[in-house]
From TrEMBL:
Taxonomic lineage of the native organism: Bacteria, Bacillati, Actinomycetota, Actinomycetes, Micrococcales
Species, as recorded: Cellulomonas soli
One Gene Ontology MF term: cysteine-type peptidase activity
PANTHER family per record: NLP_P60 DOMAIN-CONTAINING PROTEIN-RELATED, PEPTIDOGLYCAN DL-ENDOPEPTIDASE CWLO
N-terminal signal peptide: 1-23
Protein name per UniProt: NlpC/P60 domain-containing protein
Coiled-coil spans in chain: 47-116, 185-212
One GO term of the biological process aspect: proteolysis
Length: 452
């Protein structure tokens, strides 16, 4: 690498007219010329290779962040499954205890009847059988005098038998439910451990990539006779342009899918999604409207979020929604959900968090909509299944945006955010990144947005 860099510097110095003092005035041999030419070729190849490697490092960092979001969603799903299993277990236990109480009540009634028989001069054998019996068969086995028991006593025996059968069955179900709850809880803990390990691995990978990136930028600065800062800005711009191209293509694909048709059953959008340009710090830069002017919504810069300004954009033309899911919330409730989410700005991302001190992505959206009076499912995948599907030209504040590793497969959804208008979203993005407002991201979105 050093020989290639030296060759580039030599050629650069000659091209700029720099006078070089030569110790030996002897003209270079053909071999010297070929060596110099090869050095220039090697240097050019090294520069190109460095730029390719820088692009690879950016992609690797993106992949690491995606992995963290995916395992985070897996933990949220496991946690939801665990909560559901524990609820089933608690219900089964309560039913079992209720059945036990009914069986005991049936036994007490039978004992009262037995005492009444005794006071009336009934058989002591019948009395003993009834008082100590565990069920109908036991009564029949212990005493041959059951035929002398009144019809009321016979009914009480039958009720005890039924109550004991129910109690036994529900007790077994409660035990099974408790075991399933324990298994689900263990699975949730495993998923959390996996998520935390993935986060640690991602941090190590990003740190290593940053170190390698700095080394490559130093090489490029020497080869081009610039500074490391100039090369850093150049690479940041290249990264931004690559992201912008990807975003533009994804946005065009999503909006092209919105075919004008009869108005949807829900209220048309009150704002039009706008183009966003990715920033160089892992967030996205402020959105721009159709005229290319910056949107008036809030932005995220260096982790500090500015709330969006109030504006009234032109309504978008309605189009037919996709089938599946239902919408129970009004436009006013959508605004209320946004208002609730905005009060959470700056709170930390918490694995499985539903507040009040921290949230994960679906915890933020479900809590915000619940505050607005609409209950939605806990995980992002279940939320997508539940909500009404709408095309992106219908977006209004409060609607949900979903991202997936395979946009044809809802089971691969790993993130959800809330649209707030002006081409912006509010989200709990990932670990170590607080709740924020940022520009709409199109790449990786599901074919439809959702309206709770």
């Amino acid at each position: 690498m050093s020989g290639a860099v030296a060759a580039v510097l030599l050629v650069a110095g000659t091209a700029t007219g720099t006078t070089v003092a030569l110790a030996d005035p002897t003209p270079p041999s053909q071999q010297d010329v070929e060596d110099a030419q090869q050095a220039v070729t090697d240097a050019t190849t090294s520069v190109a290779g460095a730029e390719v490697r820088l692009a690879e490092l950016t992609a690797a960092n993106d992949a690491a962040e995606l992995k963290v979001q995916q395992v985070g969603e897996a933990y949220t799903q496991a946690l939801a499954d665990s909560d559901a299993a524990q609820a089933v277990s608690a219900d089964a236990t309560a039913r079992s205890q209720e059945a036990d109480a009914k069986a005991e009540e049936a036994r007490r009634q039978l004992a009262a009847i037995a005492r009444q028989i005794a006071r009336s001069g009934g058989s002591a054998d019948a009395l003993q059988s009834l008082l100590s019996a565990d069920g109908f068969e036991d009564v029949a086995r212990r005493s041959g005098t059951l035929d002398r028991v009144s019809g009321k006593a016979d009914q009480a025996v039958q009720e005890l038998r039924a109550a004991q059968l129910v109690a036994t069955t529900l007790s077994a179900r409660a035990a099974d439910a408790a075991e399933e709850a324990a298994t689900a809880k263990a699975a949730a803990q495993t998923a959390l451990d996996t998520a935390q390990q993935a986060q640690a691995d991602a941090e190590d990978q990003v740190a290593a990539a940053a170190s390698e990136r700095d080394q490559l930028l130093t090489v490029l600065a020497a080869a081009r006779q610039t500074s490391v800062e100039v090369e850093r800005q150049r690479q940041d711009q290249l990264d931004a342009e690559r992201r912008a191209r990807t975003e533009a293509a994804a946005q065009a694909a999503r909006l092209a899918a919105a075919t004008p048709a009869a108005p949807a059953t829900s209220t048309p959008a009150t704002s039009t999604p706008t183009t966003s340009t990715p920033a160089t710090d892992g967030t996205t830069a402020p959105a721009t409207g159709g005229s290319g002017t910056p949107a008036t919504g809030g932005t995220t810069t260096g982790g500090t979020t500015t709330p969006p300004a109030t504006s009234t954009p032109e309504p978008a033309a309605p189009s037919a929604p996709a089938t599946g899911g239902t919408s129970r919330g009004s436009a006013a409730q959508g605004q209320a959900a946004v208002a609730s989410a905005m009060t959470k700005l700056g709170l930390p991302y918490v694995w499985g968090g539903v507040g009040p001190t921290g949230y994960d992505c679906s915890g933020l959206t479900s809590t915000s909509w619940r505050t607005a009076g609409v209950s939605i499912n806990r995980t992002s995948r279940d939320q997508y299944t539940q909500v009404q599907k709408i095309s992106y030209d219908q977006l209004r504040p409060g609607d949900l945006i979903f991202w997936a590793s395979n946009t044809a497969d809802p089971s691969s959804i790993y993130h959800v955010a809330m649209y707030i208008g002006n081409g912006q979203i509010i989200e709990a993005p990932t670990y170590n990144v607080p709740v924020r407002v940022t520009s709409m991201r199109w790449s990786g979105t599901m074919p439809y947005a959702g309206r709770p």
